[in-house]
């Protein structure tokens, strides 16, 4: 639940819990209830974002990566949403949201087993399609140039054309 506070842009709710002095059990319980409510909101917003992406960005059979905007949802849930889509489609996923700078989008990228996504992001940075990135081989953040999102997706689809993806497990 502490993580939910951060994902929903309300980290102060989690921090306040740690700095309570001489708090009664009722006060501590009240903070816990606020965080629980925020976690429920995060779950709900994550489900809505996944559905939004499925409705607006469903992968085509030739797609080797899903690149989609998170919609009206807060960017803090992008990693959770990307992970759910990786699990569903067994494809790498890049979820982005526009930020104050209209030329850049912030992105959360999740990969599949056996694919070091950082190798491909380095190529895309060298090509000028992304401004920067950081993370590890399975999950990272990136800043994409707004006008290069299509190039980014096309390049990754092309570079991953020969990658052997495992079959998606039936749930």
Care to describe what's here?
The protein is α+β, with helices and mostly antiparallel strands and 171 residues long. The protein is 47% helix and 18% strand. The chain contains 6 helices and 5 strands. It has a 5-stranded mixed β-sheet with strand order 1-2-3-5-4.
Q: What is the general shape?
A: elongated
Quote the distance from N terminus to C terminus. 26 Å
The main pleated sheet reads as: 5 strands, mixed
How does the helix and strand content classify structurally?
A: alpha+beta
Total beta-strand segments: 5
Strand content: 15-25%
Helix content: 40-55%
- The radius of gyration computed from the alpha-carbon positions, rounded to a whole number of angstroms, is 18 Å
User: How do the strands line up in the largest sheet?
Assistant: 1-2-3-5-4
Topology as H/E string? HHHEHEEHEEH
Low-pLDDT runs: none
**Distinct helical segment count:** 6
Compute the average pLDDT.
85
